Amino acid sequence: MTPNLTQAEENYIKNIYHLQQASGSVTTNDLAAILQTKPASVTDMLKKLKTKKLLQYEPYKEFCLTLYGRKTALMIIRKHRLWEYFLVHTLRFEWDEVHEVAEQLEHVESKKLVEKLDAFLDFPRFDPHGDPIPDSNGKMSIQHEVNLINLPFNKQAEVTSVRSQSTELLELLKHKNINIGTKLEVKKKFDFDNSIEVKMKNLSPVTISEQLAKALFVRVVAS
Amino acid sequence: MTPNLTQAEENYIKNIYHLQQASGSVTTNDLAAILQTKPASVTDMLKKLKTKKLLQYEPYKEFCLTLYGRKTALMIIRKHRLWEYFLVHTLRFEWDEVHEVAEQLEHVESKKLVEKLDAFLDFPRFDPHGDPIPDSNGKMSIQHEVNLINLPFNKQAEVTSVRSQSTELLELLKHKNINIGTKLEVKKKFDFDNSIEVKMKNLSPVTISEQLAKALFVRVVAS
DNA sequence: TGATTTTTTTAGATTTGCCTAAAATTTATT
DNA sequence: AATAAATTTTAGGCAAATCTAAAAAAATCA
Ligand SMILES: [Mn+2]
Ligand SMILES: [Mn+2]
Ligand SMILES: [Mn+2]
Ligand SMILES: [Mn+2]
After folding, report:
1. Is residue A76 part of a domain?
2. Which pLDDT does position B184 carry in this prediction?
3. In this structure, what CATH number is given to the domain that contains residue A49?
4. Is B214 a member of any domain?
5. What angle do CA B192, B197, B198 make, to 5 degrees?
6. Closest C1' nucleotide to A40's CA
7. B87 within domain boundaries
8. With contacts defined as CB-CB under 8 Å, which chain B residues touch A104?
9. Is the CB of residue A29 inside 7 Å of nucleic acid strand C?
10. A144 CA, D17 C1': separation in Å?
């Protein structure tokens, strides 16, 4: 009945985890920026997370999640990404519309619900943005991702994820017929504007700007 | 981002609506009992709901939802029942397991989610307990329900809902092969213990105790 | 190294939703 | 009608999560 963690606590844990992954360490200011709150509020919560054994924290020192904190984070991320997969594949949302709703659904507390949802979706390993979905033990598949800008010529690769989930990006990808899962290879690179030309089976070559290439990640499929 | 109503406010609105439907009027004490809180807390919230134009309220007078309050209640009930239907029909929960989870899911705020879920489920009109699901305008199908104890002899009827969603009831109904949707007719009534004997097609007659009959509601299908 | 800037924490308030105890009001009973 | 009982509201407080302003510590720079 009374939840183990409040939504606020869960949001802090999840974002500490993400920032830790992305930049190795987290600061009070980073967290305040991401959670759209003030540094003073962050400090208050860090103290609370410490008393709940989720965080290692001493005033003015670097802080990081405990093992228990990391496991907790992975379970929240698991729910977030499973719901995103559900929204796109089952309810037919576009993948730029699902994040906000998943931010709410990830806080629904029911072990059974998560496991049944996972089974119904047939245990998906990646969410609609290409991010890996932790399994019920917190393990996730590793993606051998390369930024499209670094993909060598003539290597068959598959689009696995995008940085940024903006509507503008989605619009552009739709226009160019590129999706998560699309197979392509790089045919030309132009030094003038760092644009590249990619080829998808049965389609004519498509030009990709530097900005777009930097937003796309691919996995090499065959040499 | 900031929700229109808090979860606490939504729970009050929904329960005021249900009590109003069930007994014509609501009291501070009733609400406190159902929401597992104290009468003083209820009074606090009633004042808040008044300022939000959801409730007509004057100290010591009877109170009732405004039109806006009733519409709000119906949208919460719509979500609750749609999610219950989803949990049973899509994720294969038993119908005695879904209420708690639906209590959480009903507070997820996304008009689009509700409409997409409704469409995915093919616009169900009754939830797994036989209760009608309001449509997007708040309209719901009326059930012409009769308590099984009052069903005349030899009238073909269909089980439409149950009062109580306990595991114990579910176990008994499973044993007797009775479900929402099961067709039956009453063959005998015994004055000694008010038990009745019902007949389902292709099955031998089954005895139903007074307690069980009072928990089952049916709709007459044919004369 | 000493001064300045940036980051982080503390101090003190505020809002929401809840509590207990006591007062006010309504309803029921003699 | 007067008293007793039940219901409902007020008064005053508490915990969670936030805020602003100010103090403390750390990092940077001259
Ligand atoms: Mn997301
Ligand atoms: Mn995602
Ligand atoms: Mn329910
Ligand atoms: Mn129900």
Report:
1. no
2. 94
3. 1.10.10.10
4. yes
5. 155
6. C9
7. no
8. 108-110
9. yes
10. 40
Cα separation, A115 vs A135, in Å, equals: 9
CA distance B54 to chain A (A): 24
**Can you give the distance from the CA of residue A40 to the C1' of nucleotide C5 in angstroms?**
19
pTM > 0.85: yes or no: no
- What is the rounded distance in angstroms from the CA atom of residue A223 to the CA atom of residue B3? 51
Domain that holds residue B33: 7-65
Q: Please, which residues 88-127 of chain B have a Cβ atom closer than 8 Å to chain A?
A: 90-93, 97, 100-101, 104-105, 108-110, 112-113, 116-117, 120
Percentage of residues of chain B with pLDDT beyond 90 = 76
Beta bridge partners of A157: A184, A220
Query: B27, B47, B65: which is the final residue of a domain?
Result: B65
Name the pLDDT band for A2 (thresholds 50, 70, 90). Answer: low
Higher pLDDT, B164 or B223: B164
Query: Is pLDDT of B223 > 50?
Result: no
Which residues are near ligand 1, the ion (C-beta closer than 5 Å)? A 99
CATH code, A167: 2.30.30.90
Domain end (from B65, B86, B111): B65
The span from the CA of B132 to the CA of A99, in Å, is 31
A106 contacts on B by Cβ (under 8 Å): none
Domain-embedded: residue B43: yes
Give dist(CA A12, CA A8) in Å, integer: 6
Q: How many CB atoms lie within 10 A of CB A208?
A: 23
Q: Are A35 and A11 in contact (CB under 8 A)?
A: yes
Determine which of A164-168, A199-203, B28-32, B75-79 has the lowest per-residue pLDDT on average.
A164-168
| Residue with more model confidence, A103 or A127 | A103
pLDDT by residue (tens digit) across B39-61? 999 999 999 999 999 999 999 99
Q: What is the pLDDT of residues A80-95, one digit of tens each?
A: 999 999 999 999 998 8
* Residue pLDDT, tens place only, B5-39: 999 999 999 999 999 999 899 999 999 999 999 99
Q: Given CB atoms, is A201 within the 8 Å cutoff of chain B? A: no
**Number of structural domains, chain B?**
2
Give how far Cα A10 sits from Cα of A104, B108, B128, B222, Å: 11, 16, 32, 54
